[in-house]
Each structure stands twice: as structure tokens, then as C-alpha cells.
Write a structure and sequence with these properties.
Layout lengths: L8 E6 L6 H14 L4 E5 L5 H10 L7 H25 L3 E5 L2 H10 L4 H8 L7 E5 L3 H9 L10 H12 L6 E4 L5 H18 L5 E2 L1
Parallel strand pairs: 1-3, 1-4, 2-3, 4-5, 5-6
Helix pairs in contact: 1-8, 2-3, 3-4, 4-5, 4-7
């Protein structure tokens, strides 16, 4: 079993497709580094062989069963934790991760899998110290998705609406919700302030913006 870590700080950005997790992971990393922090930025699915296989599957016309897909994400996560996240946290770094276990639970549940089973599968992995859920209005997410050159199997409007509702219903004291429909700079500033508040308080917070 992968052990929980006692060092470093683990921050995860989550949200529906089109919510801005990738952009704001990068901006948060840049802001924290500018304040002298050692920050490792990473994402799931990863660029490992497993992660690349997942991306290929998501771009194909046919997919394995939902449980097989989510177990692939978990296999990628196990490798990710062992090779990137765990060493970085052990060294005392801040890890900023674009998507993590909550994505598996949310998307798996929408695909008809048991949330309890999904949570049990992911229980072995280190828990984030702070999760930031990017949640602009649903129409904003869909507008952003439709501007992309290619839409994968998870990005249809019907599925994304259910994904959106799953994220909206998350209740966890270590979670910050942020409306990412504002200007990029204003949203990035809000996220940074919540992270700095987390560091200042030394405890988990719950904020709605």
C-alpha cells in the first residue's frame, strides 16, 4: 500500500472539462515559485506509457468497460505517486497537480460505477492537503470545450452536465470552490489568496467564490 506522507504540501486542481484547471495549475505554480517556494507541477493522466494509453483510448471510437478505464487511471496514478508525487512531498516541496483521484470518482460515478468502490480503490493514495474545484457556470465550460479542435468521449454535453453536478455536490472541509468565468488574472489572484491563507492558517479551509 502507498503510504500517506508527512512532509510537503499537496494541492490539487479539479473541475469539469473546460473549467480551467490546467491554466490555473500553471499560474498558481508560477505565483508560488515567485514567492520562493519549491513547487513541482504535474497532471493526470500523466505522460507515462499508461497515461499515453489512456489518452489514446479517450480519443478512440470504442472504449473498454467503465471499470477498466478507471482502473487504468488508477494504475497511472500509482506510478505517478511513486515516481513524482511521493518523492516531491518527501523532499518538502509543494506539489500542484492538475486532476487526481477526485476525477476518477466523479467521472467513474457518472459512467455508472459505485462511488464506494471508486473511493476504496483510491484510498491507498496520498490525500490532497487542499483541493481547488474550478466551477464556472456550466455554459462557460461547454463553450470552452466546443472551441477545441477535438472532443473526446468524456466531453459530450450530456455527460459533462452530470460531471458538473457531481463536482458541485462535493462536500469536504479541505475544498475551495472557485468560479473561473472571471478574468484569468482575477481568478488566479483568488486562487493564490486561498492557497496563501491555507499556508497561513496551517489548516484546511472551505470557501465558496
Amino acid at each position: 500500500m502507498i503510504q500517506r506522507l508527512m512532509h510537503g504540501t499537496f494541492i490539487v486542481l479539479e473541475g469539469p472539462d473546460g473549467s480551467g484547471t490546467t491554466r490555473h495549475s500553471a499560474m498558481l505554480t508560477e505565483s508560488l515559485r515567485a514567492r520562493g517556494m519549491t513547487v513541482i507541477t504535474t497532471a493526470e493522466p500523466t505522460d507515462s506509457a499508461i497515461g499515453k494509453e489512456i489518452r489514446t483510448i479517450l480519443s478512440s471510437e470504442t472504449m473498454p468497460s467503465p471499470d477498466a478505464v478507471q482502473l487504468l487511471f488508477c494504475a497511472d496514478r500509482a506510478n505517478h505517486v511513486s515516481t513524482v508525487i511521493e518523492p516531491a512531498l518527501r523532499s518538502g516541496a509543494v506539489v500542484v497537480c492538475d486532476r487526481y483521484a477526485l476525477s476518477t470518482i466523479v467521472y467513474g460515478a457518472v459512467m455508472g460505477l459505485s462511488k464506494e468502490w471508486l473511493k476504496n480503490v483510491n484510498d491507498a493514495f496520498p490525500k490532497p492537503d487542499l483541493t481547488i474545484i474550478a466551477l464556472p457556470p456550466f455554459d462557460v465550460c461547454m463553450e470552452r470545450i466546443q472551441k477545441r479542435g477535438h472532443i473526446d468521449v468524456f466531453e459530450t454535453e450530456n455527460l459533462q452536465r452530470r460531471v458538473y453536478e457531481e463536482y458541485r455536490m462535493v462536500e469536504d472541509p479541505s475544498t475551495v470552490f472557485v468560479d473561473t468565468s472571471g478574468t484569468t488574472e482575477d481568478v488566479a489572484d483568488f486562487i493564490l489568496r486561498q492557497v496563501l491563507h491555507f499556508f497561513d492558517q496551517g489548516k484546511k479551509t472551505s470557501v465558496q467564490a
